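REVIEWER CHECKLIST
Item 1: Sequence provided? yes
Item 2: Single chain? yes
Item 3: Sequence as submitted:
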Amino acid sequence: MSKHPFSQMPDAAGYFGEYGGQLIPPELKQVMDEIDHAYEEIRQQPEFQQELADLFSDYVGRPSPIFYARRLSEKLGGARIFLKREDLNHTGAHKINHCLGEALLAKYMGKTKVIAETGAGQHGVALATACALVGIPCEIHMGQVDIEKEAPNVTKMKILGCTLVSVTRGTATLKDAVDSAFEEYLKDPHNFIYAIGSVVGPHPFPKMVRDFQSIIGREAREQFLQREGRLPDYVTACVGGGSNAIGMFTAFLEDDDVALVGVEPAGLGLDSGKHAATMTLGKSSALHGMKCYVLEQDDGTTMPVHSIASGLDYPGVGPQHCYLKDIGRVRYESATDEECLNAFMNLSRVEGIIPALESSHAVAWAMRTAPTLDRDQCILVNLSGRGDKDADFVARKLGL
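Item 4: Structure as written out by the authors:
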């Protein structure tokens, strides 16, 4: 078993090793501490736990199944590939897991508005869904580039009743949406709550989102043991901010025989300057109220990032991922836009499953790695979302 006390992280100040914390003004620190206190108190209440469990089961459709991608595995040769089907969740991705938790927390705390950012729109749709369910107004900030790219999710958010704010500043993508949403939140942090869409931002959000998402790994570990009588050799997930990956990895951290691999976007190539490979090429710095790996330019400003997957084009990453990289428990690799598109089309045409472009990065790594392994080895991919939102974009890009 591992010697690292993963279950005790973060510490009381919100740090995973040297990463995380609350790099925020004193007045905002008080608000964050109030949220942390309320979360720790409310999460222990049997009625909160029961309501969340019932919604996971009856609303989201959990547990999500594990599927053996037999035809893809046979086509590639080598290791067998399995998929944890988070794409089958209500709203089409893992995001609904923490959005329900955050919306319920907002209700229990008596908040009057939930504010959030979104990249690919999956967090936005999931949060708008959860807020409609509990009856709390919802405001989503989204970069104009992503609005144009992810039209199906934009339409869903409007149907669900949220206020959608188009962000045109900077690169008009995810980082700028985060900045815009946070500014709105600061107007009334006592009555509003910022429902961060990943395991990023100031403490307690990396902890809260991880806790709500950890159901993925708990289910997967038990399901794989029941199905195969053993644990997988490799567990992999895409990494932008890192919520689906932490959700999957957490249950396996103490299993030293299970290799954990996070796959981030290499974009047009690691040497192109157009990527979002934060763990591969970033350095320790500060971003959005936390210390983490950040992609920066020579002058110290945040680097413009690129990924074909809107949900991954973020120049930072969750602080727990940074810690796991530094101690060597998780290996972080990357996949290019081209590899991502190839994985998207292969899974669609060989298994009849259209994956999200974000998830396709992890599928690409599995496709690249499986032929190098033996047949008795197993790769478990967290298929974090479905590709309905990406289908039109991919069809245009590939001329289908």
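Item 5: Key structural point noted by reviewer: DSSP finds 16 helices and 14 strands in the chain.
Item 6: Recommendation: ____
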